[in-house]
Amino acid sequence: MASRTPYPEAARELLRETLFDAARHHLEERRWSEVTMGDIAATAGVSRQTLYKEFGNKSEFAVNLTIREGERFLSAVEDAVRAHTDNPRDAIRAALELFLRTAAEDPLLRMVVTDDGSGGLLPFVTTQGLPLTVWATARLSAVIEEGWPGAPKDDVKLLAEALVRLAISYITNPTGTPESTAASVADLLGPFIDRALGTA
Questions:
Q1: Co-location of 28 and 118 in the same domain
Q2: Of 76, 88, 149, 178, which has the fewest beta carbons less than 10 angstroms from its beta carbon?
């Protein structure tokens, strides 16, 4: 029999998803700086006290919202890595290309990365983006270790963090198409990828 998620845990996850969906609804029409915690709570049908109890403050909520939005397409990125375990350079290229293309097409992320600094969410991806970077690096490290279990852990973490930071940089300041950018990064990091993942 499959294990069931305990009710308190399931209820908390439902609450968080409802709050995130409420925030995304407001962000389709307004900047983050114009959205209040009261707006989010009202749209979600809960009290402000409930929202603050779950997240503490608006900045903490923004960090978790940013991670949740990344979660929505990171699984597909991980699948792109798994689909190319026979060629690590291709794995990195395919994963980065998918990430950049998906980010460019997502309305909320487009709004964030085209922010002029007054919208309020961009810092949670860039200057205040450490929680997001740590979370994404851990996820990417895990899928790389899964595909290349013999790779040195320090090299895997270094590669994963470099890719995450490059990806964030390129979505906030694109210089080419997702395809060309991913190919260039794969070429640049190629020698390290070959050595770290045992294909040199």
A1: no
A2: 149
